[in-house]
Amino acid sequence: MKISLEINGKKHEADVEPRLLLVHFLRDVANLTGTHIGCETSLCGACTVLLDDAAIKSCTVLAVQADGCRVTTIEGLASAGELHPVQKGFWEHHGLQCGYCTPGMIMAACGLLRENLSPSEAEIREGLEGNLCRCTGYQNIVDAVESAAREMAGAVK
Amino acid sequence: MIRLQHNVVHRPRTIDDACTLLAEYGPSAQLLAGGTDIMVLLNAGLLQADVFIDLWPLDELRGIDDLPDSLRIGALTTFSQILRSPAVERFAPALAAAARTIGAAQIQNRGTIGGNIANASPAADSLPVLSCLDADIELASVRSRRRVSIHSFHTGYRKTALAADEMIVAVHLPKTRTDERIEFYKVGTRRAQAISKVVLGARMQIAGGIVEHIALAYGSVAPTVVRARAAEAILLGQYPSPELASRAVAALDRDLKPITDLRSSAAYRRRVAGNLLERFLRKALQH
Q: Is residue A59 less than 8 Å (CB to CB) from chain B?
């Protein structure tokens, strides 16, 4: 089936198998391997991307369902060599160790901050409930998102 | 005439087109909305279907209408939309509470109320709320539109009253009165991304000191979401007391048929179901 979608601002057209998962399209067709595959059961959140600005798990969406949509992956965050505030937050607050969950965690945080630019600690924890991290114990991830929210709120003012 | 194809995902743009496809393919077609249940089964090789009808592009199935006596929630309305809806917060806050516990943000962004109803899981978190609110499900096919009560929609374990050519288009929730107490309780292994061990949607109205109306709907303790009719009968028309609450809890044994499975044991579920009822009655009587 022919699909056409915008990934990180760039148009992609392809003829894909109906059963192809969006995450496989991103990694194997669009060659954007920053999005990781974890559980393929929508539990771990490693494959989280933004689909029309909402955080979703790309292992449980068909590529053909993204036809006509906008997708944002981890590769689409930094611009002109400048890290996105959420990426910077993870960097500065050591929000990762092995890094496997990080792209999904960052995209889930971006989805949260789109809805709520000044989340409380509890709201950050709730917003990231769908993402598992086996290294950090989450505290530094929460700190990273808090710091990103502060920076983004400052930029808006 | 729509050309039939196999191993294909159809993406109709109107309800009429979707119904036509369903009528053509019948039971060999699998409806797909947000995919939060279907895609997990598909990835695990547990679902055989050559034809998918993806309803996601059908914007006419989305949205919440605030009608004089009811809320009409389109089948494709996501749990994110439900939990942010001022109308739901005002007239059916227990549904917003249930929506908040479904999966986590990513699942709430894709999971739909119609999908939760159609998937017919006994552990579906929204269904006890729909049951205690006496919701109606609106169905469409090329033949007709009809409304079915939530109480007769789920006919057995993962079985529904949907005909092979029918789809859910909306759910109708009668508005609750401001003097009614409605609560949603969910017990699971963790708060997010966990399938429920026990769910309770409970609704009570006290008038003149007696229980004027009571609805107790449990999930995960029987082959379908069930109303605890025996416990309701004990409470109805009585002056609430701790003694009455104990009798209602005891009556749950006649209402619930919990099983032991990988999530929990039957004994634990029975005990927790009673504890949730006690908690609800205690809280409701404080007001």
A: yes
